[in-house]
Design goal:
single chain; alpha+beta; four-stranded antiparallel sheet; 10 strands; 35% helix; 14% strand; globular
Length: 282
């Protein structure tokens, strides 16, 4: 019998604890796209015409490939990846976690002065501070500080030390600000980009609230094709309100809650939201 690769054993143990995992190759990068998605033809996202996760058989879409299913992790299509894996990664948002990635001494000093104590995992250059609760991911919120949660992955470096605390409001507020100009990286926010230009005609609270309420009703009334209904509803909301920055995390949470009440997973909601934003160029 072929022995189980060390990284796969680690992944199976983490998955059993409810942490969605995936293999990483050297350089902390996901494995290359499968033949059906060669050269990232799908953009690393699900097909725009078919809302929901990509159905290609390989673990080729970074965080979206993370899973807790042992049958997927041990499948033949994943075998090569685990044989060649250099590390294990996990999707924090998929387990309702947020990782504050602190990369230098300045970032560590800021965290110790500004954030509540929580579970800490040491990294090559700094520390990961892990909090209970999910939020949009965004890079460079401060010099040397990245937030990894929804639509992001983090390398597994061990369980760490300390008691995990609840995600502080300070991190949500920080993510809503413009990223630091010292290292402006591509954003991976699940909410629309904030701070749109020009006068916003949606600032009347009743107008926006009525739109969100109608979107919730549309999702709740879906009797079939729930995936497609959720995607089209997200697309409609973002078409009306996505460019001026008036949508908040609370509005997005209402839409996700309505979709999950119809049986959608958090991953499906995140994929549909990301696809809608990409379609509209947000």
């Amino acid at each position: 019998m072929t022995p189980t690769p060390t990284h796969l054993r680690t992944a199976l143990a983490l998955a059993a604890d409810g942490l969605p995992v995936l293999p990483l190759r050297a350089g902390k990068l996901p494995f290359g796209n499968c033949r059906a998605c060669a050269r990232n033809a799908c953009g690393g996202r699900p097909n725009m015409r078919t809302p929901g996760p990509c159905t290609c058989p390989e673990p080729c879409h970074g965080w979206a490939a993370a899973t807790t299913d042992p049958h997927v992790l041990t499948s033949l299509t994943w075998a090569r990846a685990w044989r060649e894996a250099a590390a294990v990664a996990y999707h924090p948002g998929g387990a309702s976690l947020t990782v504050v990635d602190l990369d230098n001494a300045e970032a560590l000093a800021w965290a110790r002065a500004s954030l509540p104590a929580t579970r800490i995992v040491r990294t090559t250059r700094g520390e990961h501070w892990i909090y209970q609760g999910a939020m949009p991911s965004v890079n460079a919120v401060r010099p040397g500080v990245d937030i990894k949660s929804l639509t992001a992955y983090a390398r597994w470096r061990g369980p760490g030390t300390g008691t995990m605390a609840a995600l502080p409001d300070a991190m949500r507020a920080l993510a809503a600000k413009e990223p630091s100009p010292s290292r402006r990286a591509p954003q991976t926010l699940t909410a629309p980009l904030r701070g749109g230009q020009g006068e916003c005609r949606h600032r009347t609270p009743a107008y926006l609230d009525r739109g969100i309420t109608m979107a919730e009703q549309r999702i709740a009334e879906a009797r079939s094709a729930v995936h497609a209904t959720v995607y089209r509803t997200f697309l409609a909301v973002l078409s009306a309100h996505g460019r001026c920055g008036c949508l908040t995390d609370a509005h997005v949470a209402r839409l996700f809650t309505a979709a999950q009440a119809k049986g959608e997973t958090l991953r499906h909601c995140t994929d549909a939201w990301t696809n809608a934003r990409t379609t509209l160029g947000l």
